[in-house]
Each structure stands twice: as C-alpha cells, then as structure tokens.
Write a structure and sequence with these properties.
about 280 residues, alpha+beta, 2 domains, 3-stranded antiparallel β-sheet, elongated
C-alpha cells in the first residue's frame, strides 16, 4: 500500500457500506428524537420506561359574564413531544460515481488481482479527470403506528386550567375590590343555574297537570285503577304536590341569592363612590 492502491472490491464496498449505515441511522432517528424529549426512568433487558418532558404555557384570556369583564390566566401543560414534528426519513436512491487509477498485480503464487486508488481532482494533465461523488435522495416515510397513537393520546389530554381570575373594567384595568366582584360573579352564576332548574320543574309540572286533567275523567278512572285499587289520579295528586314543594324550595333559594347579590352590588356601589372621592 505504499502508493495507496487498494483492492477494487474494498474501494467499491466502502461507500456502499457507508450508505447502508446512514440508512440505519435515519431509521433509528425517531428513537433518538423521543429520547431527547423524555427522561429515562428505568431500563432493564425487556422494557425501557420513559417519562415525557413537559412545557407549561401561561396566557391571559378576557371573558365576559354580562356583569363584568374577567381576565383569566390560563395554564396549559403539554408534553414537548406533542409540539415538535417527528421526522421519519429513509434513503430512496443513491448513485456513486468515481474515477480510479487501476493497475494489475501478480503475487509470487501467480495470482492476479486489480488494485486502484481514487485520485484527487485536477492532479493530472491528461483528459482523465479523477473524481468521486455521491447522489443520494431521501424521502419521508409514514410515522410508525406507535408514534401516531402516542401523539393522538397527547392531543386528547391537553386540557387548559384556570390559574387566576382578575375582574377588570372595559379598559382592562383591574377593579379595586376583587373579593366583592368574585362574590358577585359566583352569585350571578348560581342564580342563572337555579333559574334554569326552575324552568325545567315548571315544564314538568305543566305536563303532570295535563295528565291529571285527563285521568280525573270518571270513565277513565273506572277502567284504570292501580293494583291497590287506588285511583291513578290520587297518585298524580301526590306526585304533583311533591314537585310543587321542590319548586317552592328553589324559588326561595333563588330569592335568597338575589338578595345576597343586591347586597354585594350595593357594597360595590359604595366602594366605587368612596374610591372616587
């Protein structure tokens, strides 16, 4: 190898083997990418356990409840792996071209072989221009099924949570007494919820009263008695009485909440007047 000539098969094998090794590295790229976004918790001969690294985002959101503006600080914690694209590449085709100087060689056992060397560009003045270059094309492949399932699970579980609420005016300036505005907001929410429940009970009660009107007909009662020989209308009277009792309970509860809301609003008014002074 004094003149750096090597067997032809070795000269050809080297770049081909390099391309094969590169393709294997590309195939293992996703595993290395996952390891970058995880903390390895446990490794044994069968199972490797990894914990995903997370990123926590905070952002402000203005929401209106028809009474005042609320600036919410919202937190969203997401795994790093869910916001970074995974690249899956493979070598699609490759072309290797090179020019070599070739010479034959006989050993003492009269065995014939060809040896050559790749020469640097433009070191000779002949028409022969030694060179070597690679033309390699890669293509994106489908993400493995396991990665696709992992990304689906991560996407479903990204649920934001409210970290902080600040009550503000139309200009986005926080009100002085946050406690009173918080009480007001909660009372408005509870009153609206109770109002919806009262509406549902009223509709249900109207249906029962219509049914009672039909079943109090004398002919109907003669043919349709309960097993204990109690007229169906008697059962309906009892049911309607219970529903009305519950309705009255929620009406009183709503009145109490509205009274509490009125007191809070008066305190806010007094607070704003004294603050203006």
């Amino acid at each position: 190898m004094k003149n750096k000539f090597i067997p032809i098969n070795e000269l050809i094998f080297a770049p081909v083997n390099a391309i094969k090794e590169a393709d294997i590295e590309l195939s293992n790229g996703i595993l290395k990418q996952i390891a970058t976004y995880c903390e390895t918790k446990n490794i044994n001969c069968e199972i490797t356990t990894m914990k995903l690294k997370n990123i926590n985002f905070l952002y402000d959101k203005i929401k209106s409840n028809n009474e005042c503006e609320i600036k919410e600080t919202v937190s969203l914690t997401v795994p790093t792996a869910s916001i970074v694209p995974f690249s899956a590449l493979k070598i699609n085709s490759s072309i290797i071209k090179f020019n070599i100087e070739v010479k034959s060689d006989w050993d003492k056992n009269h065995n014939f072989s060809l040896i050559g060397k790749n020469t640097a560009k433009k070191i000779r003045k002949s028409d022969f221009t030694p060179k070597m270059y690679f033309n390699i094309k890669t293509e994106s492949t489908t993400i493995p099924e396991g990665i696709a399932r992992l990304l689906d699970v991560l996407d479903i579980n990204q649920i934001p949570s409210i970290q902080k609420k600040v009550y503000v005016n139309s200009d986005g300036i926080p009100y002085k007494n946050q406690t009173l505005y918080s009480q007001k907001s909660e009372l408005v929410y509870e009153i609206n919820k109770i109002s919806l429940l009262i509406d549902k009970i009223n509709k249900y009660l109207i249906g029962l009263e219509k049914e009672l009107k039909i079943k109090t007909d004398k002919t109907y009662q003669e043919y349709y008695l309960l097993k204990d020989h109690t007229p169906i209308s008697d059962k309906l009277y009892t049911k309607i009485s219970e529903v009305k009792k519950n309705l009255n309970k929620y009406v009183l509860l709503k009145a109490d909440k509205e009274n509490d809301l009125l007191n809070v609003e008066m305190n806010l008014l007094e607070d704003s007047i004294s603050y203006g002074k």
